[in-house]
C-alpha cells in the first residue's frame, strides 16, 4: 500500500443521503465528481428531479470496517457476505432506483486491509490510479481505494502472546527435565560438571566368591 493510502483511516460505514442539510455526524459526503461535476446518483440526464442521492461514508473507529464494495442491478442476487445499502440514512427512503450498492464488512481485528477512500468520476473512460471501479450509474463511476488497517498496541500484544506462552512453556519443560541440586546450608541450586555421568567399576577390581574363600583360609593357617 502507498503512504497516501495508509494516511487515510479505514472506512467503517457507507451510506446514501437524500439531503445535504441532514448529513449524519462523522460522515463525509461525495458531492462532486473528480472533475467538479454534481455527484448526484439519482439525477436523470434529460429531466431535472427534485430527488437527490449522494454517497457518504464514515471513518469512525468501529468494531467493523468495509473491505469490499459492489454495484449490482436491481434484479441481480445479493452477493454472498455483502450487505445492501437499501435506504437513505436521513429519511429512510429508497437509496437508488436503477442499481443497488452493496458493501462487505469485516471485523477490524481480522482485516489486514480495508476501503479507505471513495471517489466518483463523471466519465466511464476516466480511470483513477490505485483505485478499483465498483460500477457505473448515471454515466458516473464509483471507485474505492484500499489501505492498511492500523493495529492498536493491545491487539499487537494479544497476537504476540501465544509466542511468549510457547517460549515460557519450552523453558519450563527444559527446567523440569534437568535435575536440580540444592546445598543444605546456602540454599543455592548448583550443578557440577560430572552430574548425570554414569560411574562403573572396572572388571579388574571385581572379586570372585572363590577367591574370597581362599584368602580367608590362608589367613586362618597363618594364625
Structural write-up:
- The chain starts with a helix and ends with a helix.
- It has 3 helices and 11 strands.
- The strands form 4 sheets. Strands 1-3-2 form a 3-stranded antiparallel beta sheet, with no helix packed on it. Strands 4-6-5 form a 3-stranded antiparallel beta sheet, with no helix packed on it.
- It has a domain at 13-148: Vitelline Membrane Outer Layer Protein I, subunit A (Aligned Prism).
- 22% of the residues are buried.
- It is globular.
- It is α+β, with helices and mostly antiparallel strands and 223 residues long.
Task: Name a few traits of the molecule.
single chain, 223 residues, alpha+beta, Vitelline Membrane Outer Layer Protein I, subunit A, three-stranded antiparallel sheet, 11 strands, globular, protein transport
* Overall body shape: globular
- Secondary-structure content class: alpha+beta
Fraction of residues in β-strands: 25-35%
- The amount of helix comes to 10-25%
Number of helices: 3
Radius of gyration: 39 Å
Q: N-to-C terminal Cα separation, in Å?
A: 104 Å
Q: Major sheet: size, sense and barrel closure?
A: 3 strands, antiparallel
CATH fold description of the domain at 13-148:
Vitelline Membrane Outer Layer Protein I, subunit A
Query: What is the CATH class designation of the domain at 13-148?
Result: Mainly Beta
Amino acid at each position: 500500500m502507498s503512504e497516501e493510502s495508509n494516511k487515510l483511516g479505514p472506512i467503517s460505514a457507507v451510506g446514501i443521503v437524500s439531503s445535504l442539510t441532514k448529513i449524519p455526524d462523522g460522515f463525509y459526503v461525495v458531492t462532486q465528481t473528480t472533475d467538479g461535476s454534481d455527484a448526484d446518483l439519482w439525477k436523470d440526464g434529460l429531466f431535472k428531479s427534485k430527488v437527490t442521492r449522494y454517497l457518504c461514508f464514515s471513518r469512525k473507529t468501529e468494531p467493523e470496517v468495509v473491505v469490499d464494495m459492489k454495484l449490482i442491478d436491481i434484479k441481480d442476487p445479493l452477493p454472498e457476505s455483502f450487505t445492501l445499502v437499501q435506504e437513505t440514512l436521513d429519511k429512510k427512503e429508497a437509496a437508488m432506483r436503477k442499481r443497488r450498492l452493496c458493501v462487505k464488512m469485516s471485523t477490524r481485528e481480522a482485516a489486514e486491509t480495508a476501503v479507505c477512500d471513495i471517489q466518483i468520476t463523471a466519465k466511464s473512460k476516466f480511470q483513477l490510479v490505485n483505485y478499483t471501479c465498483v460500477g457505473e450509474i448515471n454515466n458516473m463511476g464509483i471507485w474505492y481505494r484500499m489501505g492498511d488497517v492500523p493495529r492498536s498496541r493491545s491487539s499487537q500484544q494479544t497476537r504476540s502472546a501465544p509466542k511468549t506462552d510457547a517460549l515460557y512453556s519450552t523453558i519450563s519443560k527444559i527446567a523440569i527435565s534437568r535435575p536440580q541440586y540444592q546445598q543444605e546450608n546456602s540454599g543455592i541450586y548448583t550443578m557440577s560438571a560430572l552430574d548425570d555421568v554414569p560411574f562403573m567399576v572396572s572388571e579388574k577390581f571385581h572379586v570372585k566368591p572363590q577367591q574370597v574363600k581362599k584368602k580367608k583360609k590362608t589367613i586362618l593357617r597363618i594364625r
